[in-house]
Amino acid sequence: MRRLTRSISIFSLLFLLSLTLAGVASADVIxxxxxxxxxxxxxxxxxxxxxxxxxxxxxxxVVIKGAEAIQASGHGHRTNLPDGRVVFRGYExxxxxxxxHMTVHMAGTKIDFTARGKGRAVLRGHGTYETGSGSGxxxxxxxxxNVEE
Length: 149
What we know:
Elements: H1 2-18, E1 28-33, E2 35-57, E3 61-65, E4 69-80, E5 86-131, E6 134-137, E7 143-148
Parallel strand pairs: 1-7
Antiparallel strand pairs: 2-5, 3-5, 4-5, 5-6, 5-7
């Protein structure tokens, strides 16, 4: 029963995360150079070729798909799903992911990550970001950042 409840919880969260891009058509689009660091609360989705370092503060959910390598140091719940996705819930510590065509979803009140390489990020909620070419605030309706090497 507990396993079923956990599976339902994970799939519910994944469904909610999949809806996060629904309103991005109206979001602002920013370009950044080489890297992106962001901290905030809400939802962040990255589609990257490169590396992502996530600092987990014990709250929220991180879902990684398409990574060639994932290293995690700390504690919390890690679930490897049959389709290749890796889900971290309530993780406190550091998660490193490297890959091409990698997708990383984060949802919670203490999102904190640095991404290096090339790709796209959507930040929805409240927080701050910094790239190699500027900085700013997240937007409640979504902010898209294109990161170029």
